[in-house]
Amino acid sequence: MALLELKGVRKIYRQGQIEVPALRGIDLKVEEGEFTTVFGPSGSGKTTMLNMIGCLDKPSSGSITFNGRELNELDKRELSIIRRFNIGFIFQSYNLIPVLTAYENVEFAIRLLNKYSNREIGERVLEILAAVGLEGMEDRRPHELSGGQKQRVAIARALVKEPKLILADEPTANLDSKTSEEVLKVMLKMNKELGTTFIFSTHDPLVMEYAQRMLEIRDGLIAVDRRREADGLSD
Amino acid sequence: MAFLTKLAFKNLVRHRNRTIFTSIIIAMAIVIYIFFDSLIGGMTELSYETIIDYESGHLQVMAEGYWEEEDELPLDYLITVDEDLLAEVKNLPGYKASLAELSFSALLSNGIDDLPVMGKGIIPEDFLEVFALEKQFVEGEIFESGEYKAVLGKKLAELMEVGIGDYITLLVKDRNNTFNTIDVEIAGLLHTGNPNVNQNIVFLPLELARQALAVGEEASKIIIRLEDKDQAARLAGVLEFNLKKQNSELAVYSWEELEAFSFLGAAELEKQVILAIILVIAAIAIINTVILAALERMEEIGMMKALGLQNREIVYTFVLESTGIGITGGVIGVILGILTIWFLSVYGMDFEAMYGMDLASFGMPVLGKIYAVWNPRAFIEVFIFGVLVSLLASILPAYWAADKDPVESIYHH
Q1: DSSP per residue, B15-27
Q2: Which residues of chain B have a CB within 8 Å of the CB of A80?
Q3: Chain B residues touching residue A13 (CB < 8 angstroms)
Q4: Is B296 on the interface with A (CB under 8 A)?
Q5: Which of the residues A13, A79, A80 would you substitute to probe the B interface, choosing the one with the greatest number of B C-beta atoms within 10 Å?
Q6: What three-state secondary structure class fits B329?
Q7: Going from the N-terminus, what domains does chain A have, and what CATH number goes with each?
Q8: Residue in A97, A113, A114, A153 to test binding to B, most B beta-carbons within 10 Å
Q9: I need a labelling partner for B141 at 20 to 30 A (CA). Which of A26, A146, B210, B335 fits?
Q10: CB under 8 A, 24+ apart: contacts of A77-84
Q11: Gap from A97 CA to chain B (nearest CA, Å)
């Protein structure tokens, strides 16, 4: 069974009397452990699709099944529980909590699970921060970190709870190419070591180089769905 | 929840200026309450003394029927002041002095104008022992027994355009309902913190009043001064028990029963109004702070929702933050309140010197400085009130913030 399945997903926004379709009928299956990138021009519907997969928004029609559960049937509280335990988010603008240190920003996500002891939490947070290359920077606040370091904290925060799925909305958009590559390597490493499923939206050709699967969205529809085989890309 | 509590605390520190500013607004509201509460307490204490010292004494012995109709100043329920009665009164533990008083209605005339007043026949030596009026003479002095002289309030004298040495006439109706007049010379003028004494009463020798009212050796009441005013209620019971053995019609009332402190009702109302003002000030400050904080932290709220926080958990952080502001404001307010009350309890507040305003002339039972009174209960109550208002006022705006669409919040710039 696929981790994620979208069937005929449509999303229509209303601007007064005018209906603006963002997604026009998306059909998609994502298996566990995939490292997928979604690309396409601005306004094509990438972020809208990610928001619906991440239980932050609901489709106008169609269905989304995540980990065997039909998301349309769930209320706000149930959706927040799915986000808390199963989905990690990485945003373009990092969205770290400014008053918390790097350590505390990561700790926040794992504390919400309410299933680890203080000692375990401490160990896991330090371990994941080291894994993303932030050893020794645990006590720094977001304003004391570079863009790349902030994004690493955001990645650590998404990974620390070992979610089934991580959604990253243009994670390298604010980073230079060297830092972008470092961040992508960290995510690829986590994908390989932990088997975490990643879905990115991006404009960045570098991200596409790392992706195992590429989805191109145009006018609210998946126009291209290609997988990278050992010897190259295949449709 | 412990982590959210820590986050709320960190937010308080992070927005230091806003926290301090809002806290100071709440603190000021609290100081205003404490200030007025202690000032009202001081005025109340002063008004007790004013009424006891100039009008009621600590205890009054009178006929039960007189008590019921005292406002009419009747001559039907007088008591006979004999040796046995006085001996029983003087035997009371804590006894200091006593005075037989004959009160009556009269029409005061200066030959041109008339004014209804209350006449009081008194024995001057006893009068000055029971009431602290000796130093309240602004002109002249007390008369002696047997003299055809009177003492009245300076304000009343001004109203009637009379002064020391002038003659006034009191038109009275005696016990037989026959009209009679008392012509007396003004011997002294009083000005006290008791508006009733200043404006409504004419004192004259007891035997003169008795003669004019045809009441023999009787009096309306015996007014008693004790060593300690706090013992009055208890001693009233003791004395009444003893006096009932002599005369079952006699009753004893303490000063608390005698005076209906309408002033206290007004003070209580004033406190409620100030509390309402605090409520509004603190609520506006907190609502404003929470809305500003929510608008500033829109992306943060969005991220918290993406992390899986539920609305109630986000509300909790905002409410806790506001409660923290309320506690900070409360602590600052209480500290400033302590300093204010300490200053006012030591140096007092002189309305006359500050504003050229004599409160007694405006009907307030206050003369001279008002000293603040410590009321620890007010500190505790207003602190709890401030914190509760801060907490409650933040709930709705916090829900407004927490209920924002997560997508809009995350991508809010």
Answers
A1: THHHHHHHHHHHH
A2: 305, 308-310
A3: none
A4: no
A5: A80
A6: helix
A7: 33-56+70-234 (3.40.50.300)
A8: A97
A9: B210
A10: A77/B310, A79/A55, A80/A55, A80/B305, A80/B308, A80/B309, A80/B310, A81/B308, A82/A55, A82/B308, A83/A54, A83/A55, A83/A56, A83/B305, A83/B306, A83/B307, A83/B308, A84/A112, A84/A113, A84/A161, A84/B307, A84/B308, A84/B309
A11: 6
A residues 88-117 closer than 8 Å to B (CB): 89, 91, 93, 95-100, 107-109, 111-112
Q: Does B101 touch chain A (CB under 8 A)?
A: no
Q: Which residues of chain B have pLDDT under 50?
A: none
Nearest to B410 among A80, A82, A95 (CB): A95
Structure tokens at B148: 């055809």
Residues in chain B: 413
DSSP symbol at B349: B
The C-alpha atoms of residue B346 and residue B393 are separated, in whole angstroms, by 37
3-class SS string, B355-390: HCCCHHHHCCCCCCCECCCCCHHHHHHHHHHHHHHH
pLDDT value of residue B179? 92
Q: Which residues of B touch A92 (CB under 8 A)?
A: none
The pTM assigned to this predicted structure is 0.70
- The answer to whether the beta carbons of residues B209 and B182 sit under 8 Å apart is yes
Q: In a structure prediction context, what are the per-residue pLDDT tens digits for chain A, which is 235 residues long?
A: 789 999 999 999 888 888 888 899 999 999 999 999 999 888 888 889 999 999 998 999 999 999 899 998 999 889 999 999 999 999 888 889 988 999 999 999 999 998 899 999 999 999 889 888 888 999 999 999 998 899 889 989 998 988 999 999 888 877 778 878 887 887 888 888 888 899 999 888 888 888 889 999 998 899 999 987 655 555 5
Phi, psi (degrees; rounded to nearest 5) at B407 = -65, -45
Distance (Å) of CA B220 to CA B61, B69, B123, B334, B350: 9, 11, 13, 49, 37
Phi/psi of residue B79, each to 5°? Answer: -115, 150
CB within 8 Å: B309 and A80 = yes
- CB nearest to A99's CB, from B10, B302, B311: B10
Predicted pLDDT at B261: 53
A-B interface: how many C-beta pairs under 8 angstroms?
65
Is A50 touching B (CB cutoff 8 A)?
A: no
The neighbouring-strand residues paired with A216 are: A39, A224
Contact B307 A57 (CB under 8 A): no
Pairwise CA distance, residues B373 & B29, whole Å: 19
Q: How far is CA B198 from the centre of its chain?
A: 19
Q: Is the CB of A83 less than 8 angstroms away from the CB of B13?
A: no
